[in-house]
């Protein structure tokens, strides 16, 4: 296991004159442990079963391939999914907070062109984790905390596990965005 130091850090001066420090850390093809700063962080685990822990600001965490453990910490965090889906690549979002944090889904991965917040009709809460209607694409099981993508809603295609959240996270359509 490799513990990473940031590969890049810098600062951006905000309009109020206060600098924001940010860190970009990239993982390897194996399991990585990364810890962000108290500034803005971008932590990208790439391959392997990684553990990413952001700092106290607004951060972006992307586990990449593997079953990763993502901890956003304080702030408005973004959990990005842009790689393979399914059990072998499902990440654990430890501290997701509905209304504050967001799940970001890459448009190319999910077969859509338009970025933005997902339509309320494309999101379903289901204690069975199954789509009930043809337009249900993102399904959250509030009993198990499992978040799925279903490419054809209630059709024959298999749903694919995206991530596992705390069942009490309160995840809603307003928390899921396509980028």
Automatic annotation (TrEMBL):
InterPro entries reported for this sequence: Hemolysin-typ_Ca-bd_CS, Hemolysn_Ca-bd, Serralysin-like_metalloprot_C
GO MF entry, a single one: calcium ion binding
This protein's name: Hemolysin-type calcium-binding repeat-containing protein
Originating species: Gemmobacter aquatilis
């Amino acid at each position: 296991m490799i513990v990473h130091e940031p590969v890049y850090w810098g600062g951006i001066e905000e309009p109020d004159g206060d600098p924001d420090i940010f860190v970009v850390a990239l993982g390897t093809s194996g399991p990585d442990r990364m810890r962000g700063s108290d500034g803005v962080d971008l932590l990208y685990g790439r391959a392997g079963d990684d553990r990413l822990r952001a700092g106290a600001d607004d951060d972006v965490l992307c586990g990449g391939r593997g079953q990763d453990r993502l901890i956003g910490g304080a702030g408005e965090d973004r959990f990005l999914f842009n790689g393979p889906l399914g059990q072998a690549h499902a990440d654990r979002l430890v501290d997701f907070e509905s209304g504050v944090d967001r799940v970001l889904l890459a448009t190319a991965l999910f077969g859509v062109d338009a970025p933005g917040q997902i339509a309320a009709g494309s999101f379903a809460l289901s204690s069975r984790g199954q789509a009930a209607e043809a337009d249900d694409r993102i399904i959250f099981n509030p009993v198990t905390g499992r978040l799925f993508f279903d490419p054809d809603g209630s059709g024959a295609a298999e749903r694919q596990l995206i991530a596992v959240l705390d069942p009490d996270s309160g995840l809603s359509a307003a928390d899921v965005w396509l980028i």
